[in-house]
Amino acid sequence: MEGDADRPAGGGLARFDERVAGCRACPRLVEWREEVARVKRAAFADQTYWGRPVPGFGPPDARLLIIGLAPAAHGGNRTGRMFTGDRSGDVLYRALHDVGLASQPTSAGTGDGLELFGVRVTAPVHCAPPDNRPTPGERDTCRPWLVRELRLLRPTLRAVVVLGAFGWQATLPALAAAGRPVPRPRPAFAHGAQVRLGDLALFGCFHVSQRNTFTGRLTPAMLRDVLRTAATAAGLPTASPEPGRK
Protein backbone atom coordinates (compact mmCIF):
# COMPACT_ATOMS: atom_id res chain seq x y z
CA MET A 1 0.00 0.00 0.00
CA GLU A 2 2.71 2.46 -0.86
CA GLY A 3 1.36 6.00 -1.01
CA ASP A 4 -1.85 4.97 0.72
CA ALA A 5 -1.32 7.49 3.51
CA ASP A 6 -1.76 10.31 1.01
CA ARG A 7 -5.25 9.23 0.00
CA PRO A 8 -8.43 10.55 1.65
CA ALA A 9 -9.07 8.69 4.92
CA GLY A 10 -12.69 7.76 4.28
CA GLY A 11 -14.33 5.74 7.03
CA GLY A 12 -12.75 7.61 9.92
CA LEU A 13 -10.13 6.46 12.37
CA ALA A 14 -11.05 2.75 12.36
CA ARG A 15 -10.60 2.58 8.59
CA PHE A 16 -7.40 4.60 8.89
CA ASP A 17 -6.00 2.07 11.39
CA GLU A 18 -6.79 -0.78 8.99
CA ARG A 19 -4.87 0.97 6.24
CA VAL A 20 -1.88 1.62 8.51
CA ALA A 21 -1.73 -2.10 9.32
CA GLY A 22 -1.47 -2.93 5.61
CA CYS A 23 1.44 -0.62 4.75
CA ARG A 24 4.54 -2.16 3.10
CA ALA A 25 6.33 1.05 2.11
CA CYS A 26 9.70 0.43 3.84
CA PRO A 27 11.43 -2.79 2.61
CA ARG A 28 13.93 -2.99 5.50
CA LEU A 29 11.18 -2.68 8.11
CA VAL A 30 8.89 -5.14 6.34
CA GLU A 31 11.68 -7.71 6.21
CA TRP A 32 12.64 -7.20 9.86
CA ARG A 33 9.17 -7.22 11.40
CA GLU A 34 8.22 -10.36 9.47
CA GLU A 35 11.47 -12.14 10.33
CA VAL A 36 10.94 -11.39 14.03
CA ALA A 37 7.37 -12.67 13.79
CA ARG A 38 8.59 -15.86 12.14
CA VAL A 39 11.59 -16.61 14.37
CA LYS A 40 10.01 -15.29 17.63
CA ARG A 41 11.58 -15.05 21.05
CA ALA A 42 11.78 -18.32 22.98
CA ALA A 43 9.51 -16.99 25.74
CA PHE A 44 6.76 -16.35 23.17
CA ALA A 45 7.34 -19.36 20.93
CA ASP A 46 3.74 -20.55 21.34
CA GLN A 47 2.26 -17.16 20.38
CA THR A 48 1.25 -15.84 16.98
CA TYR A 49 3.01 -12.54 16.34
CA TRP A 50 1.20 -9.61 14.76
CA GLY A 51 4.17 -8.94 12.45
CA ARG A 52 2.60 -5.91 10.73
CA PRO A 53 2.56 -2.14 11.18
CA VAL A 54 1.00 -1.32 14.55
CA PRO A 55 -1.81 1.27 14.44
CA GLY A 56 -2.57 3.74 17.19
CA PHE A 57 -4.65 2.74 20.19
CA GLY A 58 -7.37 4.77 21.89
CA PRO A 59 -10.76 6.39 21.27
CA PRO A 60 -11.49 8.35 18.07
CA ASP A 61 -12.47 11.43 20.09
CA ALA A 62 -9.22 11.58 22.07
CA ARG A 63 -8.30 14.94 23.56
CA LEU A 64 -4.73 13.87 24.39
CA LEU A 65 -2.33 12.11 22.00
CA ILE A 66 0.84 10.37 23.21
CA ILE A 67 3.50 9.89 20.53
CA GLY A 68 6.37 7.45 21.06
CA LEU A 69 9.05 6.19 18.68
CA ALA A 70 8.16 2.82 17.11
CA PRO A 71 6.78 -0.58 18.21
CA ALA A 72 9.15 -2.97 19.97
CA ALA A 73 10.08 -6.14 18.10
CA HIS A 74 8.66 -8.43 20.78
CA GLY A 75 6.19 -5.90 22.18
CA GLY A 76 3.84 -4.16 19.76
CA ASN A 77 5.12 -6.22 16.85
CA ARG A 78 4.00 -9.30 18.79
CA THR A 79 0.75 -8.06 20.33
CA GLY A 80 -0.50 -5.64 17.68
CA ARG A 81 -0.99 -2.81 20.17
CA MET A 82 1.23 0.19 20.81
CA PHE A 83 3.41 -0.04 23.95
CA THR A 84 2.01 -3.47 24.79
CA GLY A 85 3.96 -6.52 25.86
CA ASP A 86 7.23 -4.79 26.82
CA ARG A 87 8.78 -2.93 29.76
CA SER A 88 8.25 0.51 28.24
CA GLY A 89 4.55 -0.15 27.97
CA ASP A 90 4.43 -1.40 31.54
CA VAL A 91 5.73 1.97 32.71
CA LEU A 92 3.49 4.04 30.44
CA TYR A 93 0.19 2.28 31.14
CA ARG A 94 0.90 2.13 34.87
CA ALA A 95 1.32 5.90 34.86
CA LEU A 96 -1.81 6.42 32.74
CA HIS A 97 -3.79 4.34 35.20
CA ASP A 98 -2.29 6.18 38.16
CA VAL A 99 -3.52 9.53 36.84
CA GLY A 100 -6.96 8.18 35.88
CA LEU A 101 -6.51 7.92 32.11
CA ALA A 102 -6.58 4.11 31.77
CA SER A 103 -8.98 1.49 33.09
CA GLN A 104 -6.19 -0.82 34.32
CA PRO A 105 -2.45 -0.57 35.00
CA THR A 106 -1.34 -3.28 32.57
CA SER A 107 -1.54 -3.85 28.83
CA ALA A 108 -0.95 -7.50 27.94
CA GLY A 109 -2.56 -7.68 24.50
CA THR A 110 -5.65 -6.94 22.49
CA GLY A 111 -8.73 -8.30 24.20
CA ASP A 112 -7.41 -7.70 27.73
CA GLY A 113 -10.14 -5.16 28.47
CA LEU A 114 -7.89 -2.11 28.64
CA GLU A 115 -9.59 1.22 27.88
CA LEU A 116 -8.01 4.62 27.58
CA PHE A 117 -10.05 7.63 28.67
CA GLY A 118 -9.72 10.53 26.26
CA VAL A 119 -6.21 9.39 25.30
CA ARG A 120 -4.76 7.82 22.17
CA VAL A 121 -1.25 6.34 21.85
CA THR A 122 0.61 6.29 18.54
CA ALA A 123 4.10 6.55 17.00
CA PRO A 124 5.80 8.34 14.09
CA VAL A 125 7.04 4.94 12.81
CA HIS A 126 4.51 2.09 12.83
CA CYS A 127 6.85 -0.86 12.17
CA ALA A 128 9.37 -2.37 14.59
CA PRO A 129 12.86 -1.33 13.43
CA PRO A 130 16.13 -3.22 13.94
CA ASP A 131 17.86 -2.08 17.16
CA ASN A 132 14.86 0.19 17.85
CA ARG A 133 16.33 2.69 15.39
CA PRO A 134 14.35 3.76 12.33
CA THR A 135 16.33 5.59 9.69
CA PRO A 136 15.52 9.22 8.84
CA GLY A 137 14.18 7.98 5.50
CA GLU A 138 11.84 5.51 7.20
CA ARG A 139 10.67 8.23 9.56
CA ASP A 140 9.92 10.52 6.63
CA THR A 141 8.18 7.77 4.64
CA CYS A 142 5.90 7.09 7.61
CA ARG A 143 5.18 10.78 8.28
CA PRO A 144 2.03 11.01 6.11
CA TRP A 145 0.34 8.50 8.45
CA LEU A 146 0.97 10.74 11.44
CA VAL A 147 -0.18 13.80 9.51
CA ARG A 148 -3.42 12.03 8.58
CA GLU A 149 -3.93 10.85 12.16
CA LEU A 150 -3.47 14.37 13.50
CA ARG A 151 -6.01 15.67 10.96
CA LEU A 152 -8.55 13.00 11.90
CA LEU A 153 -8.17 13.84 15.59
CA ARG A 154 -8.25 17.60 15.08
CA PRO A 155 -11.91 18.17 16.13
CA THR A 156 -11.19 16.98 19.68
CA LEU A 157 -7.40 16.98 20.13
CA ARG A 158 -6.16 19.58 22.63
CA ALA A 159 -2.79 18.26 23.85
CA VAL A 160 0.10 16.10 22.64
CA VAL A 161 2.83 14.45 24.73
CA VAL A 162 5.90 13.40 22.75
CA LEU A 163 8.16 10.76 24.31
CA GLY A 164 11.78 11.38 23.40
CA ALA A 165 13.81 13.49 20.99
CA PHE A 166 13.26 11.23 17.96
CA GLY A 167 9.50 11.50 18.34
CA TRP A 168 9.76 15.25 18.90
CA GLN A 169 11.77 15.74 15.71
CA ALA A 170 9.28 13.62 13.77
CA THR A 171 6.18 15.21 15.28
CA LEU A 172 6.91 18.90 14.70
CA PRO A 173 6.92 18.71 10.86
CA ALA A 174 3.86 16.45 11.00
CA LEU A 175 2.03 19.02 13.10
CA ALA A 176 3.01 21.74 10.64
CA ALA A 177 1.78 19.62 7.70
CA ALA A 178 -1.47 19.03 9.57
CA GLY A 179 -2.04 22.78 9.76
CA ARG A 180 -0.79 23.56 13.26
CA PRO A 181 1.13 26.83 13.76
CA VAL A 182 4.59 25.42 14.59
CA PRO A 183 7.01 28.32 15.31
CA ARG A 184 10.31 28.92 13.52
CA PRO A 185 12.90 28.07 14.63
CA ARG A 186 11.26 24.89 15.80
CA PRO A 187 11.32 24.46 19.58
CA ALA A 188 13.96 22.13 20.98
CA PHE A 189 13.11 18.93 22.81
CA ALA A 190 13.45 18.82 26.58
CA HIS A 191 11.77 16.89 29.33
CA GLY A 192 8.98 19.12 30.60
CA ALA A 193 9.03 21.34 27.51
CA GLN A 194 5.69 23.06 26.84
CA VAL A 195 4.78 24.79 23.58
CA ARG A 196 1.47 26.39 22.63
CA LEU A 197 0.40 25.78 19.01
CA GLY A 198 -2.86 27.68 18.72
CA ASP A 199 -5.49 25.62 20.51
CA LEU A 200 -3.06 22.70 20.96
CA ALA A 201 -0.61 22.26 23.86
CA LEU A 202 2.58 20.31 23.09
CA PHE A 203 4.62 18.65 25.85
CA GLY A 204 8.00 16.92 25.85
CA CYS A 205 8.82 13.93 28.06
CA PHE A 206 11.78 11.57 28.22
CA HIS A 207 10.97 8.28 26.51
CA VAL A 208 9.80 5.39 28.68
CA SER A 209 12.68 3.24 27.44
CA GLN A 210 14.41 0.86 29.82
CA ARG A 211 17.57 2.95 29.47
CA ASN A 212 15.73 5.93 30.96
CA THR A 213 13.55 4.17 33.52
CA PHE A 214 16.20 1.74 34.84
CA THR A 215 18.73 4.54 35.36
CA GLY A 216 16.26 6.91 36.99
CA ARG A 217 16.54 9.51 34.26
CA LEU A 218 12.76 9.18 34.00
CA THR A 219 10.95 8.24 37.20
CA PRO A 220 7.27 7.26 37.49
CA ALA A 221 6.62 10.54 39.31
CA MET A 222 8.19 12.55 36.49
CA LEU A 223 6.06 10.74 33.93
CA ARG A 224 2.89 11.19 35.95
CA ASP A 225 3.58 14.91 36.31
CA VAL A 226 3.83 15.39 32.54
CA LEU A 227 0.75 13.27 31.86
CA ARG A 228 -1.28 15.06 34.51
CA THR A 229 -0.26 18.50 33.21
CA ALA A 230 -1.08 17.51 29.63
CA ALA A 231 -4.41 15.97 30.64
CA THR A 232 -5.37 19.19 32.43
CA ALA A 233 -4.46 21.20 29.32
CA ALA A 234 -6.64 18.82 27.29
CA GLY A 235 -9.59 19.26 29.64
CA LEU A 236 -9.48 15.69 30.96
CA PRO A 237 -10.13 14.80 34.61
CA THR A 238 -7.24 13.18 36.48
CA ALA A 239 -6.74 11.23 39.68
CA SER A 240 -3.98 11.14 42.27
CA PRO A 241 -1.80 8.00 42.43
CA GLU A 242 -2.18 5.53 45.25
CA PRO A 243 -0.67 6.71 48.55
CA GLY A 244 2.98 5.76 48.84
CA ARG A 245 3.55 5.25 45.11
CA LYS A 246 6.79 6.92 43.99
Strand and helix map with partners:
Layout (H helix, E strand, L loop, with lengths): L11 H9 L6 H13 L24 E4 L8 H4 L7 H12 L20 E4 L13 H18 L5 E5 L1 H13 L16 E4 L2 E6 L4 H6 L4 H15 L12
Parallel strand pairs: 1-2, 1-3, 3-5
Antiparallel strand pairs: 4-5
Helix pairs in contact: 1-5, 4-8, 5-6
Description:
The chain is α/β, with parallel strands linked by helices. The chain has a single domain, classed as Uracil-DNA glycosylase-like domain (Uracil-DNA Glycosylase, subunit E). The protein contains eight helices and five strands; from the N terminus they run ααβααβαβαββαα. Strand 4 and strand 5 form a beta hairpin. Helix 1 packs antiparallel against helix 5 and helix 4 packs across helix 8. It is globular, with a radius of gyration of 17 Å. About 2% of the residues have low confidence.
Please give the domain count: 1
Q: How would you characterize the largest beta sheet?
A: 5 strands, mixed
Low-confidence stretches: 6-10
Mean pLDDT rating: 94
Classified in CATH, the superfamily is: Uracil-DNA glycosylase-like domain
Which term fits the overall shape? Answer: globular
CATH class division? Alpha Beta
What structural class do you assign from the helix and strand content? alpha/beta
CATH architecture level-2 label: 3-Layer(aba) Sandwich
Q: Give the strand line-up of the largest sheet.
A: 2-1-3-5-4
What percent of the residues sit in helical stretches (DSSP H or I)?
25-40%
Write down how many β-strands occur, each being a DSSP E stretch of 2 or more residues.
Answer: 5
Strand content range: 5-15%
Order of helices and strands: HHEHHEHEHEEHH
The number of distinct helices, counting runs of at least 4 residues, comes to: 8
- What's the CATH topology label? Uracil-DNA Glycosylase, subunit E
Cα-atom radius of gyration: 17 Å
Separation of the first and last Cα atoms:
45 Å
